[in-house]
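Sanity check

After download, print the first record. It should look like this:
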Amino acid sequence: MKKQISYKVVSLVFSILVVCFAIAFYAVAWDEPLQNPPGCTSRDPGCDAPINVGNVGQHKTGTLRVAGLTADGETHLAWDSGNVGIGTRSPGDKLHIANPGGGNQVGIYFEDPTDSAYGGRIYFDDTSNTFRFGTVNNNVETLGIVVNGSTGNVGIGSTGSTIHAEANLHVYQIIDDSARMYLEASGDRNSYTALYSNGVRKVVYGYRYSDDALKLSHRESGTGAELDNNDFVLKEGFVGIGRVNAGPYKLEVAGGTHAIIGRGTQNGVEGQGGAGFYDFWASGDGINYGGSSSIRWKKNIKQIDSALDKVMKLRGVYFDWDEEHGGQHDIGMIGEEVGEILPEIVAWDEDNPEFTTGMDYSKLTPLLVEAIKEQQKEIEALKAQLNLRQ
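Expected structure tokens:
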């Protein structure tokens, strides 16, 4: 009787050990079930197997709730109230990416499917306080767009430190010898930029297709597409101001009380024509040349004295210009000689005071008028003497 009981106990213990061993073995070797439970159709609610660590693909039909996937004490993925966090346990937006492991950058890298040395990055750089979009070419990063977090200024092809402090948009050259910006309209359309101030459009400039020209217009109404005010037109090297189009003159100005006013620290306006042509050409209905003159603006008025004597001291000459000034044959006077008699009508060289730079020939007219009057008096006196002798 004792031998029988001992045999049953041993058998029971052995059976328990076999079952425990089998449970342990299948727990370690657990993998995705290869088939759905009997009577279930694939992807029917409740039919798919639970998440496991196997290498067989799995479909989850219900809601997946993840409190936090961690490794080495750091949170790598979290889901909270519909927000997803990477590197944070408390995502504050639909997708929240953080860098709890240190470093001064956090972002996303897009890898070229065929070559890992190429791709693109979107990231925030804490050192420069900039948000950046860039490309990676052969493991070398090239910045495309940078937003400065302190000013909101945007740089294209620029690092945060090279964005000009006064520029809301700074296009920076980093590849060759120039920085470029292209505006292209498809088809037969205008391509333009509008400038606003306090919500009001002030200036429109761009390419006008119908005129095949660059135009700039000051305009404060309309949709912004108008380039027909003709304030400034540039076409094939010709410039028109106040005109519908540019040419045939290099610069043509229309409208205004004064079309052109030159105010230089030395010369107001300078003209240089070719040999045998005119430095200045007048062809309109107005007076060809005019200078300010009114008794309202003049004081200390005195008549020119000894005008005939001054004229007699002047010398008219023929001469040839040097090559720098055209090299042509001409007629005129010597500025230095005229300056000794009429210093009011010559301009002296500031760097070489003993030389003149030019003279105003038109201002000889007042002298000649008074000289003729003096000469006429002499003629009248001689006539009177002749009459007395007769």
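If your output differs, re-run the checksum step. Summary of this record's structure: The longest strand covers residues 140-148.
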